[in-house]
């Protein structure tokens, strides 16, 4: 037997499906009446629809079909205006009567006219049941509901009635549940300091601490608020039910209860809790992956910033490329270490690299303090600029101050270390072109005659001297002390005037 169930409530769908799974009834779950095929009978959840909608539905399916309406016990019973329309409470207490009604409909009512020539629905196999997780609209769900019966589930039961505690304990143990019982809510709360349990069944009328107050404490505690709580009571009090649900009860059952319904509800809430834990674990995994991705991104950004100027890195990240650009006002610093080739031939490679790394690391720090940008090192040569890729009106002054600080650093280092290093420094200013070179291995490089001239200034300098062009002198002559030199013949440039930068004015 197969019947459509129209609901959007997973609890209702799961309870009915699990309850009927061994009775030969398959339920097809639909979320909208318009999607359902014709059938001998329809189960309709009235709580989710207005009166007009389900009345229209009843008329549409009217002549040859029965409509079974699941109504909320706190709402008015809708006027069906239809003789073959039945109502059942949504708390599903009387499942046997509902099952008997479906069987009688199957046996006694003729098929709808449009389906007389079709084969009748095939009864499901004995072990077939309906899973809410698989109950996609318009499809018969498959059988993968997690059955917790026989598993290692620990149930905590608080009820002041010893006969009820014994009865529920035997009932649960018959399905291999572990059960721990308590006479009142305080005993339960004390126990939870040692063992959280998987599910809590709690009565309201108890001495010392009643069910409502216990529930309030459970749901206010971070450690216990996620444990599923089924509220049990023999009192048919609408206000009590509402209060329990408002304080966080996951479900409410009246005593005495139907055993099948009892286990069906337990299975539903245990499955929900299992899915919540799985979701939590997946979220934690995603958070961990995101943290790792963020860390790797941060490391990649650091590597890029060690290779490329910040502006170029941001442009590459935003656009995926960067265009070459001409900068008209740039000052270029060029230096190399005096006698490096001779000294390096007599040093262990490890010691040599360590010395260079220490020196260039300090050079980088000095350049950064003066808003300058290191472009690259070539062996013992060090190239830096100011005024690109970010324009800077103080480009000449910044490079001059950086050069003086570098000379001072080397002098101080030589006074404290056995290995002595001296530098020749050259500075020039003018127009420079900058851009990223390469595809797989990016490098930001600079081009133009200004670079060549700065290199000539360096090669014509002296150890621990800062040699600058006349262009630099004209820009900074009122701020720094210069020593004019004899004009020198420069390869590819002819005779050039040069000056030593000695310090600030």
In angstroms, what is the radius of gyration? 42 Å
Q: Which class of the largest domain in CATH terms?
A: Alpha Beta
DSSP strand content: 15-25%
- Count of helical segments? 14
Beta strands, count: 20
Oligomeric description of these chains: single chain
CATH superfamily of the largest domain: Nucleotide cyclase, GGDEF domain
What characterizes the major β-sheet? 8 strands, mixed
- What structural class do the secondary elements suggest? alpha/beta
Terminal Cα separation, in Å? 102 Å
Helix content: 25-40%
* CATH level 3 topology of the largest domain: Alpha-Beta Plaits
Tell me, rounded to a whole number, the average pLDDT.
81
Q: Can you describe what's shown?
A:
- With 505 residues, this protein is of the alpha/beta class.
- It folds into three domains: 2-134, Response regulator (Rossmann fold, 3-Layer(aba) Sandwich), CATH 3.40.50; 154-277, Rossmann fold, CATH 3.40.50.2300; 310-504, Nucleotide cyclase, GGDEF domain (Alpha-Beta Plaits), CATH 3.30.70.1230.
- The protein is built from 14 helices and 20 strands.
- It has helices at residues 10-20, 51-60, 95-108, 162-173, 185-191, 211-220, 238-246, 259-307, 310-319, 340-345, 349-369, 395-416, 449-459, 470-476, and strands at residues 2-6, 26-30, 41-45, 66-71, 85-89, 154-158, 178-182, 199-203, 229-233, 251-254, 325-337, 373-378, 381-386, 423-437, 443-447, 465-469, 480-484, 488-490, 494-496, 498-504.
- Strands 11, 12, 13, 14, 15, 16, 17 and 20 form an eight-stranded mixed beta sheet that branches.
- Helix 11 (349-369) packs antiparallel against helix 12 (395-416).
- The protein is elongated and about 120 Å long.
- Residues 111-146 have low confidence and may be disordered.
């Amino acid at each position: 037997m197969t019947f459509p169930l129209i609901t959007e409530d997973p609890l209702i769908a799961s309870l009915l499906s699990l309850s009927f799974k061994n009775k030969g009834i398959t339920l097809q779950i639909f979320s909208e009446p318009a999607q359902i095929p014709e059938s001998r009978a329809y189960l309709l959840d009235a709580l989710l629809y207005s009166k007009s909608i389900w009345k229209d539905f009843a008329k549409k399916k009217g002549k040859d079909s029965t409509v079974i309406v699941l109504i909320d016990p706190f709402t008015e019973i809708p006027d069906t205006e239809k003789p073959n329309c039945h109502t059942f409470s949504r708390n599903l207490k009387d499942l046997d009567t509902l099952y008997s009604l479906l069987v009688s409909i199957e046996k006694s009512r003729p098929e709808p006219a449009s389906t007389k020539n079709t084969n009748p629905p095939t009864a499901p196999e004995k072990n077939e049941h309906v899973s809410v997780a698989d109950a996609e609209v318009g499809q018969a769900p498959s059988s993968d509901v997690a059955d917790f019966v026989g598993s290692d589930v620990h149930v905590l039961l608080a009820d002041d009635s010893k006969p009820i505690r014994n009865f529920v304990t035997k009932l649960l143990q018959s399905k291999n549940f572990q059960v721990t019982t308590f006479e009142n809510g305080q005993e339960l709360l004390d126990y939870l300091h040692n063992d959280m349990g998987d599910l809590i069944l709690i009565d309201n009328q108890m001495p010392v601490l009643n069910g409502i107050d216990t529930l309030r404490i459970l749901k206010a505690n971070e450690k216990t608020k996620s444990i599923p709580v089924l509220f049990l009571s023999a009192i048919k009090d609408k206000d009590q039910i509402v209060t329990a649900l408002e304080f966080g009860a996951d479900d409410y059952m009246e005593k005495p209860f139907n055993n099948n319904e009892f286990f069906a509800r337990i299975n539903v809430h245990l499955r929900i809790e299992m899915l919540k834990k799985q979701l939590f674990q997946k979220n934690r995994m995603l958070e961990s992956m995101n943290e790792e991705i963020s860390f790797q991104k941060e490391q990649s950004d650091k590597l890029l910033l060690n290779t490329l100027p910040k502006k170029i890195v941001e442009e590459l990240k935003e656009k995926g490329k960067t265009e070459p650009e001409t900068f008209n006002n740039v000052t270029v610093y060029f230096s190399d270490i005096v006698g490096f080739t001779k000294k390096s031939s007599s040093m262990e490679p490890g010691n040599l690299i360590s010395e260079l790394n220490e020196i260039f690391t300090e050079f980088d720090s000095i350049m950064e303090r003066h808003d300058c940008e290191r472009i690259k090192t070539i062996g013992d040569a060090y190239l830096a600029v100011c005024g690109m890729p970010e324009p800077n009106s103080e480009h000449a002054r910044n490079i001059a101050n950086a050069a003086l600080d570098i000379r001072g650093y080397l002098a101080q280092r030589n006074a404290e270390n056995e290995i002595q290093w001296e530098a020749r420094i050259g500075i020039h200013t003018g127009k420079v072109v900058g851009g990223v070179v390469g595809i797989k291995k990016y490098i930001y490089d600079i081009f133009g005659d200004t670079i060549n001239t700065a290199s000539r200034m360096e090669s014509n300098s002296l150890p621990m001297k800062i040699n600058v062009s006349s262009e630099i002198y004209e820009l900074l002559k009122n701020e720094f002390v210069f020593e004019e030199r004899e004009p020198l013949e420069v390869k590819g440039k002819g005779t050039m005037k040069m000056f030593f930068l000695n310090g600030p004015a």
